[in-house]
Amino acid sequence: MQDGDQLAAEIDKAIKNMTPALPAEVFARIIDWLVTPIDPNDSTLPHASGADLDYAPALPSSTSSDLLSAASSCTLLHQIASRALYRRPLLGTLKSLNSLASTIFADAKKLYSPDHGQASARATWIRSLHLPPGDGLLQPGDTLADQADYVESLRTLFNHASRLDFVSLEHRQAGAALLEFLYPATTCRPRRLTLSNLSFSAPPFSTTQSLAPLSKLTHLHLIKIVPPPALISFLIGKTINADEQGNVPKSIEAGLSPRQTLECLRLSLLPPDALAEFGAYIGWRKAWKEYEQLSVQQQAHEPAPRAPRGPARRFAVQEALYDLATHSSRLPRLQLLLLELSPLSPLPSPMVEERENDPSAMFFRVGRNAPAWPMLDARETGRRGKASVADVRAKRSNLHDFKDAMQIPPVAANHPNTAAASPFGLPEEEDRIDPVDSLDEESSQVPAVTPEELRTAERDKYWRLVEEGKRALIKLWRSSQTEPDVPDIRVVTARRGGHDRREVFLDFYCQAQQEPCTATATATATATATATATASRSNGHSCSAEAKRLYGQADEVGCWADPDIFSLVTTAPYLSFKSLGEADRGWYWTGELPRQTSGPLKAVLPSQVTRP
Known about the structure:
Blueprint: H1 2-18, H2 24-34, H3 64-71, H4 75-87, H5 94-109, H6 121-125, E1 128-130, H7 144-148, H8 150-160, E2 166-171, H9 177-181, E3 192-197, E4 219-223, H10 229-236, H11 248-253, E5 264-270, H12 278-292, H13 296-301, H14 312-326, E6 336-341, H15 350-356, H16 359-363, H17 378-387, E7 392-393, H18 399-406, H19 410-413, H20 435-441, H21 451-480, E8 488-492, H22 501-512, H23 519-528, H24 545-551, H25 568-571, E9 577-579, E10 587-589, E11 596-597, E12 603-604, E13 608-609
Helix pairs in contact: 2-4, 2-23, 3-4, 4-23, 5-8, 14-21
């Protein structure tokens, strides 16, 4: 028995002697394996490896308990695992925010003790941060006491987390997250910011106390926010509107504008008609500019240019896009502009449309007096689902069938929607068909309009207007540039959940991996005590060559890698098609994505595609 105890003691001693000899890189690799790996494009839509448009990867599981166990095993692992634990906190509740703030506050108190070298250390470990959803609203498991500490916890966090590189937060009118972030005492200058608006009005950028936290932005993602003039002025570093600017001019004079660093801008959940008739809006703005240059006497004899008709929501978006494009020369590093339009309801199947709708009533919905395009509604989606429970999406495996359908002879390419192109024997909508115009010209002759034309005509017209608006924006942007290069401007696929909690969380995980330096590099530096923790690029420090070699520095990850919807016509034409579940009936177009494009790679898909 004594020999056994002696042997165990010798083994323990040997283990203790061996542990410090392990290279720090080995420990870092162990911690990396404990953290659930995330594909940096898991939140990209459509997913690169997904079978169809509805495919969505599952959220990664929490690894906090594993990291805590590793941190308690030895001193070296404690340092490395703790950094991994605090590096990317996704705070789902107010309680978790308060707990993190309490830890940071306890560290800050050490400033007044002899052991002040570690003061606020854990706050500086935080590189990416997702604040609780709802901007102060109670989440499952929260109490009123947690809600009462919300503002104080935010202030503690932003006062000490000086090395934040990515921040994701929500704003509501009675909330505090954005106001506490844009505060003079905020110490971080993140490169990436995702801001989701829960209010009906835009966030008050002009009345915030400090815009300095936005001064180093490279990636700005705005959800349900049309950039107001104050924000555009700040981004381009020039006042474009004398009204409602607040402290923006002073911030610009202080050199806080991110115009020299901004590389990517995304505007999500814009009105669905944001790009409709944008060319007409551009013409009106140019005509108005010329009108303003006339003398008072000349203006008295010239009628003022009349603004295009349309809803105020469209006008606000087009005003913002026009101001950005005409001042694009002030954004020399801008490489990517993504526009996400709010989704439209999917079109019903041809069978449901024929069964539920009166063709004579549908006839008059196609013309110039057609109603506004319906935005996707949860109740409407449920009703559609019940009406077509057998519908299933076309899959990636069906790609060759759609590629074959795009191989249209040159003569038919100009008029693709013929009876021969339709496997159901129904001719499809053509650009030359306009039932209402035909009635205006010759009311006694009514053109033959099929149910399939009625089903698709309005949606086809919508996508044509969107593509025309995109081309007008690119042309305007190019004419305003001093350099020949124009940013990549894309209209991207709308999130089906409207950037709900799951979608936002998943994108946070993808974006959080784009730190200037990684766990391995940071842990190695900590363990060997040869360098301090690596700072973000916004603070002027650079990553080690090893970190760049291992993990890379690609910018287009997550939602930033979303492809242009018109390119999907040729690369993934099956995405917006469904079948009725019958093997020999083929697929019908749902209208969720365009089926034709007049871009560099012209392509047209019939609204009904047959199986071979």
